[in-house]
Amino acid sequence: MEHSGKMEFFQKLGYNREDVVRVLGKLGEGALVNDVLQELIQTGSRPGAHQDNAAPLLVPRGSCGTPDSAQRGRGADLEDDCGDPASSLRPIVIDGSNVAMSHGNKEVFSCRGIQLAVDWFRDRGHTYIKVFVPSWRKEPPKADTPIREQHLLEELERQAVLVCTPSRKVNGKRVVCYDDRYIVKVAYERDGVIVSNDNYRDLQSENPEWKWFIEQRLLMFSFVNDRYVAAEGVPARAGWG
User: Fold this and answer.
1) How far, in Å, are 184, 209, 210 from residue 206 at the CA level?
2) Which of 14, 66, 136, 153 has the greatest count of CB atoms below 10 A from its CB?
3) Residue limits of the RNase NYN domain (predicted)?
4) Residue 37 burial by CB count (10 A; 0-12/13-18/19+): exposed, middle or buried?
5) Do 67 and 79 meet the contact criterion of CB atoms below 8 Å apart?
6) Is the pTM of this model over 0.85?
């Protein structure tokens, strides 16, 4: 990509011209687009106001600052108080369906698995924890969608930890939103960590910034009976205390 093409590309992403010129001066005019993007992110550059269909903005770790009006329209209802602003611990965004099905051996939606994951992060001092599940998981379980300890979802919802993504029925068929997009979007906006064993490859291909973010901030896990175990080596790379 020529110089003018790179400038146009990164300005469409929301980066200002001065930051792009600075990075190109450091890496050279022949630098690959992905290398320029990674350098922009690593040096703390922030995209400016995006259109509604663009990627959300990064938020500095530990920041509880009030988003401006451009940001407030994109999921402000999901961004409540993140606790102690002095904390160095990153916000945690949990893929509830992935965690519950993993604890239930991919056969049962086990709400106990979600609770174990939430408790694991709480015990380590994290104050901003959100769990995303489709809203239909609160409906009475059926033979083809078994759920265990469903009352735990109600308790987590009362604690403002659980976030239910929309779902509805059209002509008797359930229509659900793409909750993976909510998970990645909120984690990205909060500069947090995604807890899931899903690689979100389709979302990685949509946006280069999301790709880099998912690669760096995806914390995989396993269960040993009723013990939640996070993948080794990832916490330090993800940057929590």
Assistant:
1) 12, 9, 8
2) 153
3) 89-237
4) buried
5) yes
6) no
Pair 132, 163: CB distance under 8 Å: yes
Helices (H), 124-178: 151-158
CA count, 13 A, side-chain hemisphere, 66: 2
CB distance 99 to 198 below 8 Å: no
**What does the alpha-carbon distance between residue 191 and residue 215 come to, in Å, rounded to a whole number?**
13
Residue 142 has pLDDT above 70, yes or no: yes
92-230: CATH number: 3.40.50.11980
Inter-axis angle of helices 17-27 and 3-12, nearest 10: 130
Residues 6+ apart with CB under 8 A from 69: none
CA gap 41, 209 in Å, rounded: 8
Q: What are 31's two structure tokens?
A: 């630098």
DSSP structural state of residue 208: H
CA 72 to chain centre: 17
Q: What is the pLDDT of residues 121-139, one digit of tens each?
A: 999 999 999 999 988 888 8
